[in-house]
Design a protein that fits this description.
The chain is α+β, with helices and mostly antiparallel strands and 336 residues long. Helix 4 links the parallel strand 3 and strand 4. Helix 2 crosses helix 4, helix 7 packs across helix 9 and helix 8 runs antiparallel to helix 9.
Length: 336
């Protein structure tokens, strides 16, 4: 199959890491005599404008693509940026009502999506995973419908209310994130503010509906609806989550006393937190979460503001063009 790679580059991702990785990818493209066209974002929102312009040119994936493109090019979008950049791209697809495969070169601070699907964060290895692929991989994502503000969209990683969202809001507003990104320590910025958030996040009530059953949590500390194991730059909050399964994972943590908080934090670092009695995990293909109390929210590492939520979730599929390198995630869940 002949490819024409359309490379959407967010040079500001990862405090400049996007520009560096793009330079490496372009060098590899030139060295291999690949056909490509680069597109650079200059400000927030440019991703969506670029995708809108390319929407009619990008090729649709089907099982007959290889034979269809023997004599013509398959036009594939390659995104170089952070999870937020990829989030903007797939949501523009959703807004336009189209389905297109997309490749991804992670260049952000957290890169949780790449970590979750087994996509290398080394640009040379990522390049090889992209150009060696002959077909895309179906990745489970989810659709959300927020009733209070009438918002809809697609989420690749997770939507969180409470602790993780407070960490995102604090980290994204900090100057230390840019400094740590400069030394390739972007994930450390999340860890830095995790400790602070644990002591400042207050409890709040939520209602959860899973397939007709209602669950009330009065002292919620963290509520994360996720597709992959990670949030916050590699924190495995839901190690049993698998983006290849047509399910949504929900993690709810109710706030214990101070000694128990510290114990939970140690368990989280050691990846043994799922046995903590304050940790609850559920899976479902559809669910609803209502948080009347105004709390911080985040979607794919981008802040949603401090507000009330009435969120409905259902599963969806996004095709990611890369050679799969699978890792096994073990764990257990309560399924309704």
């Amino acid at each position: 199959m002949n490819f024409h790679y359309h490379i959407l580059i967010n040079p500001a991702a990862g405090s400049g890491n996007g520009a560096k990785k793009a330079e490496k990818i372009i060098q590899l493209m030139d060295a291999g005599n690949y056909t490509y066209t680069p597109y650079y974002t200059e400000k927030p929102g440019d991703e969506r404008e670029i995708v809108a312009r390319l929407s009619e040119l990008l090729s649709v994936w089907s099982p007959t693509c290889e034979q269809d493109h023997v004599d013509t090019s398959f036009h594939l979008l390659v995104v170089i940026g952070g999870d937020g950049t990829l989030h903007e791209v797939v949501n523009q697809f959703y807004l336009l009502g189209i389905e297109r495969p997309v490749s991804y070169v992670p260049a952000g601070s957290g890169n949780d999506f790449a970590r979750g699907i087994g996509l290398s964060r080394d640009p040379q290895k990522t390049f090889e995973q992209v150009v060696s692929a002959t077909q895309p991989q179906p990745i489970n994502v989810f659709h959300y419908d927020e009733k209070i503000r009438d918002e809809q969209g697609i989420v690749l990683n997770n939507i969180g209310i409470g602790l993780d969202a407070l960490i995102v809001a604090t980290t994204n507003a900090s100057t230390s994130k840019k400094l740590l990104n400069k030394y390739h320590l972007g994930s450390a910025s999340y860890a830095l503010y995790l400790v602070k958030a644990i002591f400042t996040q207050k409890t709040f009530p939520i209602l959860v509906e899973l397939n007709g059953q209602s669950l009330d949590f009065e002292r919620t500390f963290l509520c994360t609806t996720t597709n992959i194991p990670y949030f916050g730059g590699g924190i495995a909050i839901a190690p049993m989550a698998d983006p290849r399964k047509d399910l949504i994972d929900l993690v709810v943590v109710e706030k214990p006393n101070l000694p128990a908080i510290l114990r939970f934090l140690i368990q989280l670092v050691r990846k043994k937190h799922t046995s903590n009695k304050h940790y609850q995990h559920f899976t479902s293909s559809r669910l609803r979460i209502v948080s009347v109390s105004p709390e911080h929210g985040q979607a794919d590492g981008e802040t949603m503001g401090e507000r009330s939520f009435d969120l409905n979730f259902s599963t969806a599929t996004q095709y990611i063009w890369y050679t799969e390198k699978r890792t096994e995630n073990k764990g257990s869940a309560t399924t309704f």
